[in-house]
Specification:
The structure holds two protein chains of two kinds. Chain A is mostly helical. In chain A, 77% of the residues lie in helices and 1% in strands. Chain A contains 16 helices and two strands. Chain B is α/β, with parallel strands linked by helices. Chain B has a domain of 166 residues: Rossmann fold (3-Layer(aba) Sandwich). In chain B, helix 3 packs across helix 4, helix 3 runs parallel beside helix 5 and helix 4 packs across helix 5. Chain B is globular, with a radius of gyration of 18 Å. Classes of the chains: A mainly alpha, B alpha/beta.
Chain lengths: 331, 242
């Protein structure tokens, strides 16, 4: 139901993005783009439970489970990361299953707290389970270039891998939101009791949403660790990078919408990188202050996120085109 | 064959007995009014029937199926539809609101859209399909709630004050709705404070006071019943009658 010109704009942007590595050879530019795609995908995946009104601040758990599973399988047992990817998704889904047990009873802020605790517990496990995870030392992915090792000599393959992942995840969330599951989630977010009285199994819907989200986040964990070569508990289960950042992107862009996370991630990732680099020369951690301010201002003045400002503009244009008469009358 | 059989239903909230040993039956195709003073436990009965509250004792049977311990969504699927006293539409378009119950039964979006449009047409509000409930009048939103409940294709429909808060014109407009809905094949229990409506539409009236059923009969029988008058107006005060 989106206006046609938006499709055209989307297609043009996609083609331009395909061409970026051809024209920009700078590894820094490619890295920033790759990071943006990564966060678009991560935020979109994080956003699926948000369709049902659930705010997770513990997605680092699924991310870390996925990353550790594939990395351990590859480094210790020589399993190709592409095979490890499947097992990692399974492990992340298992994590989703565990977190969804409290979801049967916990909603709203209580689910949020449970999600934080879950990720923190897993971080502790990763630190202490030295025989498996190598503890705080972490795991290094040996540099053996080759497709079967998901290791590449240039940044381009990962650029395209993350671009494709971002596009697929966003389209998937679009499909989910417009499916029966999406309707059930939106109804549950709006009024859980009323939805149940109409025959909607809201607990099942919330569970399925969390499982989709967990699985996709696990995949991103695998790609991310092979993109970075190194991993230790405090980064793999980083609350800052993989729990708060997607939530921040989502809330700023428009939580529970399809395009909000895309807008949020595209705006916040470069800003975040910029702030991290420039503000840390003044005072470590200063960029958090800026983040906090942006978040407070967003929630205070545009609680629906940036998309809620953009949408009426787009819809008005569409209406004007559909009913030119009405426009004349108005003007 | 009765459609609904409620036996010794009891619900306590702490020390308060909201529903006390309530038993009644409803026949298929009936329109039953449920009345009583404020706090009599009428809405609690609806919450017990639709499964939102768990009962402390007693049983509820729909058709030949005992549903006393069924979860709310399963009761809806079994055929109990309801509306809420305070309107609880979802924050989505009217059409999407009505699609939700249809999608709980069949995952096809196209079919759900069809069903929803049909129901909206039947309710005479198909022109509101793309509107957001938040922008509509209370009378319209109450109609949407009824439409949403009808999209569950209920065998038993519980209407909780669908006329409350409407002006006389709107009451007159929404009143035929109850009969209309019954003619679609649903049996109805409705809670209402607008007495003219209760007298006009219901075939049988149940009267509750302080959690218990105090009277049951045709509208005219009930209005002449001493217990009912006492429940509504209180005991005759000897000092006043002097």
């Amino acid at each position: 139901m989106k206006p046609k010109y938006l499709h055209a704009i989307g297609a043009v942007i996609f083609i331009l993005l395909l061409l970026v590595p051809v024209f920009f050879k700078s590894t820094f530019v490619l890295h920033i783009y790759t990071l943006i795609f990564f966060y678009v995908a991560l935020t979109a995946a994080w956003n699926i439970p948000a369709f049902g009104g659930q705010l997770s601040l513990g997605h680092a758990s699924f991310f870390g489970i996925g990353a550790y599973t594939a990395a351990i399988l590859y480094v210790k047992y020589g399993v190709s990361p592409w095979v490890g990817l499947l097992i990692a998704v399974g492990a992340s889904l298992l994590g989703g299953l565990i977190l969804s047990l409290p979801l049967v009873r916990l909603r709203g802020p209580f689910f949020t707290l449970a999600s934080i605790a879950f990720a923190e517990v897993l971080r502790m496990v990763a630190i202490d389970w030295r025989s498996m995870t190598n503890g705080s030392v972490g795991i290094n992915i040996p540099f053996k270039p080759g497709f079967q090792n998901m290791t590449f000599t240039s940044g381009e393959p990962f650029y395209y891998l993350f671009l494709a992942t971002a596009v697929i995840v966003v389209l998937l969330t679009y499909r989910i939101r417009n499916s029966a599951l999406g309707f059930h989630l939106r109804a549950a977010a709006s009024d859980d009791e009323a939805a149940r009285a109409l025959g909607v199994n809201t607990s099942l819907a919330q569970f399925l949403a969390l499982m989709w989200s967990a699985g996709l986040t696990g995949i991103l964990g695998v790609f991310y660790v092979f993109y970075n070569y190194v991993m230790e508990p405090n980064t793999a289960f980083s609350m800052d990078l993989f729990s708060l950042q997607p939530a921040l992107n989502g809330i700023i862009g428009g939580m529970g919408t399809v395009w909000g996370p895309v807008i949020g991630a595209v705006l916040m990732t470069p800003l975040g990188e910029f702030l991290r680099v420039y503000l840390s020369t003044i005072q470590q951690g200063l960029h958090y202050v800026v983040y906090g301010l942006v978040l407070i201002l967003t929630v205070k003045f545009i609680p629906g996120g940036i998309l809620s400002i953009l949408e009426p503009l787009i819809n008005r244009k569409k209406k004007d085109r559909d009913n030119p008469k009405e426009k004349e009358e108005r003007s | 064959m009765t459609l609904l059989k409620v036996k010794n239903l009891t619900k306590r909230f702490g020390g308060l007995v909201a529903v006390n040993d309530l038993s009644f039956e409803v026949n298929p195709g009936e329109i039953v009014g449920l009345i009583g003073p404020n706090g009599a436990g009428k809405t609690t009965v609806f919450n017990l029937l639709s499964g939102i509250h768990a009962s402390d004792a007693g049983s509820v049977t729909l058709g030949d199926r005992e549903i006393t311990h069924l979860a709310p969504h399963r009761r809806s699927l079994a055929g109990i539809g309801r509306t809420f006293q305070v309107v609880r539409t979802f924050e989505m378009t009217v059409l999407e609101n009505v699609m939700v119950p249809a999608l709980a039964r069949d995952k096809s979006i196209a079919k759900a859209r069809e069903t929803a449009l049909e129901v909206l047409k039947m309710m005479g509000i198909e022109n509101l399909a793309d509107a957001l409930p938040g922008n509509l009048t209370l009378a319209q939103r109450k109609r949407i709630e009824v439409a949403r409940a009808m999209a569950t294709k209920p065998r038993l429909l519980l209407l909780d004050e669908v006329l409350a808060g409407l002006n006389p014109t709107e009451v007159a407009e929404n009143l035929p709705l109850i009969r209309q809905v019954r003619d679609q094949g649903a049996t109805i229990i409705f809670i209402e404070h607008v007495m003219a409506a209760v007298m006009k539409v219901s075939e049988r009236v149940l009267v509750m006071a302080q959690g218990a059923l105090i009277c049951c009969g045709t509208p005219s029988e009930v209005t002449n019943d001493e217990c009912v008058i006492k429940a509504y107006l209180g005991e005759e005060d000897p000092e006043c009658s002097q």
